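thread: overnight batch results

M.L. [08:02]
morning all. the overnight job finished for the chain we discussed friday. pasting input first so we're all looking at the same thing
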Amino acid sequence: MLIKRIAYFVSPHGFGHAARAAAVMETLSEFDPGFQFEIFTTVPSWFFQDSVSAPFTYHHLVTDIGLVQKNAFQADLKNTLRALNDFFPPKPSLIREIAETINALNCVLIICEIAPLGILVAKEARIPSILVENFTWDWIYQQYAVSDKRINRHIDYLQPIFNAVDYHIQTKPVCRRNSADLITAPVSRKIKTHGSKIRIRLGIPADAKMVLITTGGIPQSYGFLEKLNNLPKITFVLPGAGPAMKMVDNLIILPHRSEFYHPDLVNAADAVIGKVGYSTLSEIYHGGVPFGYVARSNFRESESMVKFIQQQMPGIAVGEAEFNNGNWTTKLSDLLDLAPVKRNIANGSEQIGRFIEDLLT
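M.L. [08:03]
and the structure it wrote out:
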């Protein structure tokens, strides 16, 4: 069997980029078991252990800054600027060192999950690079230039790096379309366990309603749990809401990392309430379940995502304050009345996998 080793540079901003990367890696390994991966990121290694069955080696490396978050919904511009100033531009000696590692590992390709460092390393290592994105950071940062012009230098630095990539893939919902070699359907990790089995493991009867509450890759405490107790006929599952699995009345609290795979939870649910993030949206899109979506008011990506949800998915908008105080429960009956959608469309990971296979052959 011919081994084809790919280096993957993954942005640590939330878990959405890691989830998209994991979906592509898993699909590539299904196409050809000769694919092996070298993953460079600060996303916890357990995330990839839970999501990727293909052989991979984890390299703990800061590959990207993105945005420093105050919480699941609010970015910290001051600390983002501080982190960007410390990281960019990376020292040439660092780029050379990583490129030497890439060459020593015999990697044939670098895939950049919006992490610009991978593009710089690919140029130094003299191997092709692929950018996978639905936005790039220079575009995201433009909205913050209004309140702090110091971020403009990072926009000016990053834009030509992203433009210098060898191959460019955009995944729907795309924030800004430009010269891409491929535009794909939403990319999500595939389910592992049927929804009925997940419900049995959670102790939820097949005919009961299950609602998943999620804020993506950032743990969150909720102030509305008492309101959920007033809806005893519905079981609420809350990943990342506690340090350990706990069942209290109609609430199932799960830790940040649990024995339940997130796409499986989405697939088992009758509806999902949560933050509009890429991986959450994509998993719900392919699962077809109704989405009570909470858009981040200060994040530029939200506009294109909300538009996509409104056009392509069953859902009801939930305001950020409404989500935090639990008043979204008044909309829950209408959300659960929405009919789920059965998709007959390829996962974007398969489109990316075929593109890469063709590229390497």
